[in-house]
Amino acid sequence: MRSRTTTALATLAALATLTGAAQAEIRLGASVSATGPAAFLGDPEAKTIEMMVEQINASGGINGEEIALTLYDDGGDPNKARTFATRLVEDDEVVAIIGGSTTGTTMSILSVAEAEGIPFISLAGAISIIDPVREYVFKTPHTDRMACEKIFADMAAQDITRIGMISGTDGFGASMQAQCKEVAGAQGIEILADETYGPQDADMTPQLTRIRNTEGVQAVLNPGFGQGPAIVTRNVAQLGFEIPLYQSHGVASDAFIELAGAEAAEGVRLPGTALLIADLLAEDDPQYQVVTDYTAAYREAYGTATSTFGGYAHDAVALIVDAVTRAGSTDPDDIRDALETTEGLVGTTGTYTFSAEDHLGLDLSAFRMLEIRDGGWSAVD
């Protein structure tokens, strides 16, 4: 277990003790997978949340109140995530929760948030998080269903109609596999081969060989996250595939290119966010300023580039700050109500407009179709 607060907040608390002044505070909780197999998701999320809380407190807080952040590292373990969510509510008395780096940890946290009436913003991708709509649960990443639709639209534009699919059996991979199957027909896509692999598998050449030997396959789609998609990408290159390979937004980061190898990843397409092409955005792009400010601040704070996943956390913090500001209250129900009336909030992932029927608030226009070229990201559309 790990509990962390910002340096700025600790300093302010010490000053308050010395002066005897009472410090009003907004108690914000978070549980992310900063270590473990999903650390590539949770580490930039944790860093982003801490950085933003420090920035907000340094500029006067929200409506004059400082944020008191309690952040736990669940290591990607759903049981730990549930324990920490309970602790955040019962012991830390938070008014809102951010987290759930994975679908599994998210589902654990949301069960607590719903039962206790605490607004929760998830950082995971599965559509099941917000469909059906749950009263206190929102999320910032695009859904896996949206990723399928974006990918299939790009395939259709290239006259690709018959594909092979190889999916991870993890929560994200299985969910996206199911969603792609549901929308494929409507998008004019026929799935001729359907293979899977486990989270610990180190070689997918048998499954990919079966796909390659399936007559008529024009492209390969790999729903999944973690090391699996990188292995698939290397195996595709090793087998000499001459058809396009599509990955999911679950690997939309520079770390994927590094893990797969730039040569093997060359030409891979996937739906991603504006963050990955920050240096290519036009100044009149609606997301230009938000993306530019965040990437610059993150690099200054940590000396590295951010990722799509840190961007999800950025948007979650921004949404809560906006909701508390508009509500003029730290009551969880008031924050929830304000979240649900969010309109036109520009984040790194897209522009959010929530409603009682929509706790994601993004459409397909928030996705950018990207392609890996020369070891970096380029925009296809």
From TrEMBL:
This is Branched-chain amino acid transport system substrate-binding protein. The keyword Ion transport does not apply. Residues 25-361 form the Leucine-binding protein domain. The keyword Transport applies. SUPFAM superfamilies: Periplasmic binding protein-like I (SSF53822). Residues 1-24 form the signal peptide. InterPro entries: BCAA_transport, Leu-bd, Leu_Ile_Val-bd, Peripla_BP_I. PANTHER family: BLR7848 PROTEIN, LEUCINE-SPECIFIC-BINDING PROTEIN. It comes from Salipiger marinus. Belongs to the leucine-binding protein family.
